[in-house]
């Protein structure tokens, strides 16, 4: 529903003949309160909030809801976009490009806002003419590389609310239950391609993508030229303790005239102990120099946004990666 509301407002702005669009300056989102059990996923918030009162000390756990991921996908739209286009079957999409046509982003959705989805499964075929992404020098003899990333949010697959219901709607989820919900809280990578070369002046077959999706769904397609502005440096890294053996990491990316972050496919989080402490036989703590290597702690997880929550000693699909990261 959020995608439909945002794109309707965008169409009002993009249509010159629309009186409302000429007066509309911004669209606000209500996230000024915290959710509570048993309505942690059903209230108008971007995160589901669990007040963990049975721990000592009590603490709070958050799970990102699909609405948060939808806003993240919409943030990838370029400055210049078309009005919202509508297709049969409750499908709508917005196509956007940057000023130099070195970046193209398509966001499409199939919703149940106006009518129910009697057929949940839908098959989406996308043909992307990669030569529409221009390099720094669009000359017939110039060959440049184009990357493509397709991310999606689907009913049942990226739906921690449904998993929480299957878990019995616990007021105080266990560490394993929280980890299982976080496996589903962010968009999934449906297609990725980084080595497609394009030569202008020649007939390009483009990129053909066939997707089998369970509705309602939202899909983001990003095309980036190798000449597009590279991302800036990571800065303002903050590590906060959530609870015992659990942390959340936040960071920022520098953005300027020659720096953009729209072509970042995922973020990698690495860890290496700064010092080691062990308890000697006499009970005294000894500090030594670590001999371990850098550990890629989110290697098994797609991390499209600028935060990552890590917990030790959990049994999840990504546990194999964490098992290899022993301190």
Structure, explained:
The strands form six sheets. Strands 3, 4, 5, 6, 8, 9 and 11 form a seven-stranded antiparallel beta sheet that branches. A three-stranded antiparallel beta sheet has the order 12-13-18, with no helix packed on it. The protein is globular, with a radius of gyration of 23 Å. Helix content is about 15%, strand content about 35%. It has six helices and 18 strands. With about 325 residues, it is an alpha+beta fold. It starts with a helix and ends with a helix. It has helices spanning about 1-15, 20-25, 65-75, 160-165, 175-180, 320-325, and strands at about 45-50, 60-65, 80, 85, 90-95, 105-110, 120-130, 145-155, 190-200, 205-215, 215-225, 235-245, 245-255, 270, 275-280, 285-290, 295, 305-310. It has a domain at about 1-230: Immunoglobulin-like (Sandwich), CATH 2.60.40.1500. The model has no long low-confidence stretch (mean pLDDT about 80).
Proportion in β-strands: 35-45%
The level of helicity is: 10-25%
Total strand segments: 18
CATH superfamily of the domain at 1-228: Glycosyl hydrolase domain, family 39
What is the number of helical segments per DSSP (H or I, 4+ residues)?
Answer: 6
Secondary-structure element sequence? HHEEHEEEEEEHHEEEEEEEEEEH
Q: Estimate the global geometry from the Cα principal axes.
A: globular
Which class best fits the helix and strand makeup? alpha+beta
How widely separated are the two ends? 44 Å
CATH class of the domain at 1-228: Mainly Beta
The third-level CATH topology of the domain at 1-228 is Immunoglobulin-like
Question: Biggest β-sheet, characterized?
Answer: 7 strands, antiparallel
Uncertain regions: pLDDT < 50 for 5+ in a row? none
**Mean pLDDT rating:** 81
Nearest-angstrom radius of gyration? 23 Å
Domain Glycosyl hydrolases family 39 N-terminal catalytic: 23-189
Pfam families: Glyco_hydro_39
Organism: Anopheles stephensi (Indo-Pakistan malaria mosquito)
Protein name: Glycosyl hydrolases family 39 N-terminal catalytic domain-containing protein
